[in-house]
Specification:
5-stranded mixed sheet; globular; single chain; alpha/beta; 177 residues; 29% helix; Metallo-depent_PP-like
């Protein structure tokens, strides 16, 4: 059965991100290889992955080599560090789908790179990246940056379990799926 995963902010090839985000890697090569291995230990060949931006700072050939090694059907929502390259650049590099804007998933989840303003009356949960180790409190945001998920994609089921727990703790009804 196909599973669905979400992730963001790998920053493949970006040496400075190791220091910026206190990532537990000695070199950019170690970081890249570790994140590829973690991805493939989590995601199967037929699974779907929504990457919510800031995938790679490498050139097209190196980015393509990484994408060819990653399991799953990969959709990219462009992040702030991806937007200097065209949608066709990312498709040529190996993503199956690329969106310059957010995507509504299952009529209830707003997938974006940057977190969106969501008040408690909005009917969506914003699954996002961009803010790395930070986290918004509340039941309307869910951060899938690699720093929160041991550098691997998080399943839709795990997101639903976490949201249900948060909503039960806050006394709100569970999210729709």
């Amino acid at each position: 059965m196909t599973k669905v995963y979400f992730t963001s902010d790998h920053h493949f090839g970006h040496k400075a991100i190791i220091d910026y985000e206190s990532r537990p890697f000695e070199t950019v090569e170690q970081m890249n290889e570790s994140m590829i291995a973690s991805w493939n230990q989590t995601v199967g060949q037929t699974d779907q992955v929504f990457h919510l931006g800031d995938f790679s700072s490498l050139g097209k050939e190196e980015t393509s080599q990484i994408l060819s090694r990653l399991n799953g059907y990969k959709t990219l929502i462009l992040g702030n560090h991806d937007r200097d390259r065209s949608r066709s650049w990312w498709l040529d590099a190996g993503f199956q789908e690329v969106s310059g804007n957010g995507i509504i998933y299952k009529d209830f989840f707003l997938l974006t790179h940057e977190p969106m303003y969501m008040n408690r009356h909005m009917p969506y949960v914003n699954i996002h990246g961009h803010i790395h180790g930070q986290k918004y409190e509340g039941i309307n945001h869910f951060n899938v940056c690699v720093e929160h998920w041991n550098y691997k994609p998080v399943s839709f089921e795990a997101i639903m379990e976490a949201l249900t727990s948060q909503q039960e703790a806050s006394g709100n009804p569970p999210a729709e799926s």
